[in-house]
């Protein structure tokens, strides 16, 4: 299987359980990997045989910067499901990691993240 990776995409959203998260919002980072067969795209140099990663970026941006979710688990599942539904004939599997670099948690840590994998990966 071949893979397309979109790494360290950055967005601003209003997801979370705490009032501060839904009022002030916060930064989110996302990593997305798509399992695709790039054989035909590689042979033809034709974008129509692969997935346009600019479209995937816009899709992720619209979801993360759109309707608020309480749980990033729900948000990351939404991203994965929409990608699979948008490219049913091209994307065989998807892995999505959503990172909260600054959650309102007291303590010392770099970040928290949630990751889901769907389909053939």
From TrEMBL:
Enzyme Commission number(s): 4.1.2.25
Keyword Metal-binding: no
Pfam families recorded: FolB
GO function term, MF aspect, one: dihydroneopterin aldolase activity
Keywords: Folate biosynthesis, Lyase
Gene3D superfamilies: 3.30.1130.10
Pathway linked to the protein: Cofactor biosynthesis; tetrahydrofolate biosynthesis; 2-amino-4-hydroxy-6-hydroxymethyl-7,8-dihydropteridine diphosphate from 7,8-dihydroneopterin triphosphate: step 3/4
Domain Dihydroneopterin aldolase/epimerase intervals: 4-118
Catalysed reactions, semicolon-separated: 7,8-dihydroneopterin = 6-hydroxymethyl-7,8-dihydropterin + glycolaldehyde
A GO BP entry: folic acid biosynthetic process
A GO CC annotation given for this chain: cytoplasm
Function: Catalyzes the conversion of 7,8-dihydroneopterin to 6-hydroxymethyl-7,8-dihydropterin.
Homology family: Belongs to the DHNA family.
Name the record gives this protein: 7,8-dihydroneopterin aldolase
Gene: folB
